[in-house]
Amino acid sequence: MADGTLERAARAENAASSAPMRLAGTGPKDARWMGWVAVAVVLGLWELGCWLGNINSLYLPRPSQIVASMVKLFVAENLVLDLGWTLWRIFAGCAIGVVAGILMGVWMATSPRVAAIADVFIAALYPLPKVTLIPLLVIWLGTGGPFMLTISALGAFFPVVINTLLGVRQCDPGLVLAARDLGANQRQIVRRVLIPSAVPSIFAGVRLGLGVSIILVVAAEMVVGRTGLGARLFLAGQVLNTEDVFAVLVVLATLGIVVTKLQDMVDERLARWRPN
Amino acid sequence: MKAAVSSGQAPGTASTMTAVVAKDLGLAWAIRQGTPVVALEGVSCAFAPGEVTAIIGPSGCGKSTLLQIVRGFLEPSTGSIAYLGPDGSAGAAPSMATVWQSFNLFPWLTVEENVGFGLELAGVAKPDRQLRVREALAAVDLAGFESKLPRQLSGGMRQRVGLARALVMNPDVLLLDEPFGALDAQTRLVLQEQLARLVESTRKTAILVTHSIEEAILLADKVLVMTARPGRIAAEIAVDIPRPRGHATTGRAEYVALFEQIYGLLRDEVERAMRSEGN
Ligand SMILES: Nc1ncnc2c1ncn2[C@@H]1O[C@H](COP(=O)(O)OP(=O)(O)O)[C@@H](O)[C@H]1O
Ligand SMILES: [Mg+2]
Questions:
Q1: Which residues are within 8 A (CB) of A216 and not within 5 positions of it... i.e. 6 or more apart?
Q2: Which of A56, A79, A212, A233 has its CA 20 to 30 A from that of A67?
Q3: Which of chain A's residues have a Cβ under 8 Å away from the Cβ of B165?
Q4: Residue B191 pairs with which residues in a beta bridge?
């Protein structure tokens, strides 16, 4: 990524080793412009190559055509509504999955019985590609809002449960003892010690889960949706409108970048949990 | 460190006059394979109000286990803990707070939030809490560090936060489980002297588990020497050196005599503990 997102992620992973690493090359700030220049060069070559090679825009439209198509989609064809639908499905569904996942994970971590029971189901469902659940969910819920939110929530649920469980289990038992010593009851220990100590792990789960939610919502929209970016993408492909296909892909890629940026910002606020 | 952390209960009230008496305590850890590990056996001792008792003994002899039983976090296999009022009748359980070897500060909370944790749980309103937290931090020379995170502090400062977090609760009994065990030698010396002054000024009942004979003599009114596992009380030694004590105390003849006496008892036990680890 051109703007140092990867570097930032790596730094967050291992704060200690970042200083010597930065000595090895130029700093991330100095190198940032190179990514944008590279993008501009590729776009320029793409435009020029299509034009010189007289390539049929049915196969590969020029960047300028894609931009024109995107303007048309937003101005005349209400693409912003589809973007809104997709965002709603991703974030509302993901939020449901995250909340359910945290509650379930904490419950499992604090009750061996619940863990034993839930473990079997999670072991069976976690490795299953969630797209394979689309037909069954359509039979049960139809293709409307409840279906979209469910598939999105399912995507986020599993990574969040597993990370919450691990995070809570890894909590230093000394901290639990200290809280008890200061008068905390069982409920206060869960809310004031176990959950806060698992925050970095929970957030790692949310990151993964949001990624899965995005994939599932777009895939579900492609298969059954009449609205949303996935549906627009699929319909454009059906009528061989390659410019529109590219335009929607660019919108989806931009969405990905924005989501990653937001997560980086949250990551920075987790500095409290970072060791030394 | 400055004098008393004054808020809350005044010293000399009924519960602070309660002695903690351990009667014939025994504890065996059930382990997955083989016979249970007997950590404590027939431990009887009394912790008098206003008195500092040091517990010293080889590693793994059950000192922390004893402290956890006194705290009420561990149920002994045999024996019991009793609380005796000044007239010998049964008293109420005194309040306690612990200072831990590994500090056990909450890494996501600031110094102020760490120290205020117990008061917040107890429902102390924010203005009052802030006042008491600041007072406790001042008592351990950490005024101005309120908004720092534990990871931004040195080991010695972290343990002073741990000390403030326990003191702010104004416990009847202060439990210290090798509080300076994780610190370097110089920091340790300084903190020992500071703790000695704090203990002298507050006249708080304290139980101090330590590996250091010097620490035991500097701080305690009474030293319990424990045997290698299973832990028993090998000797109870009164420390009659006048206070205030400090590093200069280590030059006195009484100090040297006491040191030799405790070291003599301890050496045999440590050797025994090492032999039993080896087999
Ligand atoms: N949770 C536990 N389960 C099993 N054995 C334990 C446990 N905690 C302590 N022990 C054992 O009990 C003995 C006493 O431990 P401890 O009280 O921590 O010793 P000390 O504090 O004197 O070093 C040790 O041999 C230790 O291995
Ligand atoms: Mg110990």
A1: A130, A131, A151, A152, A154, A155
A2: A212
A3: 182
A4: none
B122 to A183: CB separation less than 8 angstroms, yes or no:
yes
The closest of A73, A81, A102 to A236, measured between CA atoms, is A73
The per-residue b/e assignment along B240-259, b for 16 or more CB within 10 angstroms, e otherwise, is: eeeeebeeebeeeeebeebe
pLDDT tens figures, A31-61: 778 888 999 999 999 999 988 988 888 888 9
Contact B108 A196 (CB under 8 A): yes
Query: If you write DSSP's letter for every residue of B130-146 in order, what string do you get?
Result: HHHHHHHHHHTT-TT-T
Q: What is the helix (H) or strand (E) element at residue B206, kind and residue range?
A: strand B205-210
User: Which pLDDT score, from 0 to 100, does residue A13 have?
Assistant: 39
| Residue A14 confidence class, pLDDT cut points 50, 70, 90 | very low
Rounded distance between C-alpha atoms, residue A171 and residue A175, angstroms: 8
pLDDT category of residue A216 using cuts at 50, 70 and 90:
very high
Atom 16 in ligand 1: which residue has the minimum CA distance? B62
Averaged pLDDT, A167-181? 95
- Of the two residues A136 and A22, the one the predictor is more confident about is A136
What burial class does residue A216 get, using C-beta atoms within 10 Å of its C-beta: 0-12 exposed, 13-18 middle, 19+ buried?
buried
Q: How confident is the model at residue A15 (pLDDT cuts 50, 70, 90)?
A: very low
- Which ipTM was obtained for this model? 0.89
What are the phi and psi torsion angles at B28 (to 5°)? -120, 130
Residue B208 identity: L
Q: How many CB atoms lie within 10 A of CB A253?
A: 10
Helix (H) or strand (E) holding B21: strand B19-29
The one-letter amino acid at B212: S
Q: What percent of chain B has a predicted confidence (pLDDT) above 90? A: 65
- Residue A190 is classified by DSSP as I
Q: Please give the Cα distance from B226 to B235 (Å, whole number).
A: 7
- Write down the pTM of the prediction: 0.82
What residues does A214 pair with on adjacent strands?
A: none
Q: What is the pLDDT of residue A7?
A: 47
* C-alpha to C-alpha distance for A76 and A51, rounded to whole angstroms: 27
- Side-chain-side CA neighbours of residue A150 (13 Å): 16
Provide the strand spans (E) within A136-243: none
Q: Which residues of B fall below an 8 Å CB-CB distance to A?
A: 71, 73, 96-98, 100, 102, 104-108, 117-118, 121-122, 149, 151, 165, 169
